[in-house]
Amino acid sequence: MGIGLTALDETYREEIHQVLDRLRSAAPVHEDTELGRIIVTRHDDVRGLLRNRDWGVDPRKSTPDSYIRLITGTSTEEDLADYQPSMLFLDDPDHKRLRALVSQAFNPRAIEDMRARTEEITAALLDEVVDRDEIDFIADFAGPLPTLVIADMLGVALEDRDDFKRWSDDLIFGFDPMRDEETSARIEVSGDAMRAYFDATIAARRANPADDLISDLIRAQESDDGLSDAEIMSMCTLLLIAGNVTTTDLVGNGLYALLTNPDQLAKLQANPELIENAVEEMLRFDSPVTDSGRIPFSDSEIGGCPIKKGRSATTSLAAANHDPSVYPNPHRFDIEREDTHHQSFGGGIHMCLGAPLARLEAQIGINAFLARFPNVRVSDTPGKRRHLPSFRGFETLPVRL
Ligand code: HEM
């Protein structure tokens, strides 16, 4: 199937669940020889694989022609030589050491402390559009919100937010297995600019520590946690990239689901306290990250299919979240659904670190937007879905206020 099972394909973008339903019924463990991966779509297989400690994520343990090597830009030995993976692509013990260093900043109490700041940032963004009839919900609201929140956590000056947003929007295209030369060049330019920026910020915080995450990482380095400068850099990059487009897409897909299901919108407007459940349903219904992946450390199997050591398996989070054997009426968007558990943040030791922050931003952002613009509706100009494999969201989403 090759790109037919990625967001590069129009049918997949527009009718993702028809495509995934067919795959789940016909070939729930499907070998995609074109892109060098096995695609897993049943809920229990996805859930089990994400938590299986006999499978890892480090591309260096996968075969050169595999999907994971393709998307991490490590298909050749030469690429591998300068590869500095973030913890997203590291196995224990390195993964555990790095994750422990930042997990404090993302525990539920620390995130609750971000509430007031997130509310302020949200209100300021809404103030900026208050006189407009029509806005692009992505460019004007869902895009800047997470950039401003993560920049605040890292301790990056607000004036630099546009650079931040551009770098992270460019760098995430590293996940496109078919990226062309122009995109690769853009990724390189933005990567260099961002590294230079973090280099300078790390040096500045080393001289003058502040109350922010970069200063915390420098303190960890000084207290002999074995953290290298390259690791600090790669952590900052990961947090910036992992937390930006993903949260934008949750807020964008979530608002779109509400606007195209007016009964659910009316229910939430009448009962804003339903927002926590509603955001879980948004995550399940239109998952911002459609795929994650794992690599078996030794010859293994999934659902009875043998899988050789080092193969790359894609766990389809979007397919798992719509598995009819787990979710009654899976394609219905129901903000009062009783069982809203989902696979959208992955699972096991790599389970999304930023999940509490993403939830907080979406809960605050969507409710505040609806309170300010209760008559919002989709514009006559249709939104455009982004063409980026593994992620799912809108590039533009015009709405009338
Ligand atoms: C709706 C928004 C988000 C979604 C859907 C999402 C989804 C995911 C997924 C699917 C994974 C991989 C999990 C696995 O393979 O088991 C992941 C990992 C990660 N996410 Fe998120 N994410 C979101 C927001 C954020 C935010 C706001 C941050 C931080 C600012 C963040 C930081 C991370 C990090 C650091 C990892 C790597 C964790 C590890 O390897 O141990 N994410 N996320």
Please, what is the average pLDDT?
Answer: 92
Roughly what percent helix? 40-55%
| The CATH H-level homologous superfamily | Cytochrome P450
CATH class: Mainly Alpha
Radius of gyration, in Å, reads 21 Å
CATH topology: Cytochrome p450
Describe this structure in words.
There is one protein chain. With 401 residues, this protein is an alpha+beta fold. It is built from 18 helices and twelve strands. Helix 10 (144-154) packs across helix 11 and helix 11 crosses helix 14. The two termini are 41 Å apart. The structure holds protoporphyrin IX containing FE (HEM).
List the SSEs and their pairings.
Elements: H1 10-14, H2 16-26, E1 29-32, E2 37-40, H3 43-51, E3 55-56, H4 67-71, H5 77-81, H6 94-103, H7 108-112, H8 115-129, E4 134-136, H9 137-142, H10 144-154, H11 161-171, H12 181-207, H13 213-222, H14 229-259, H15 262-270, H16 275-285, E5 291-296, E6 300-302, E7 305-307, E8 313-316, H17 317-320, H18 355-372, E9 377-378, E10 384-385, E11 394-396, E12 398-400
Parallel strand pairs: 2-8
Antiparallel strand pairs: 1-2, 3-5, 4-12, 5-8, 6-7, 9-12, 10-11
Helix pairs in contact: 8-10, 8-18, 10-11, 10-14, 11-12, 11-14, 12-14, 14-16, 14-18, 16-18
This protein binds protoporphyrin IX containing FE.
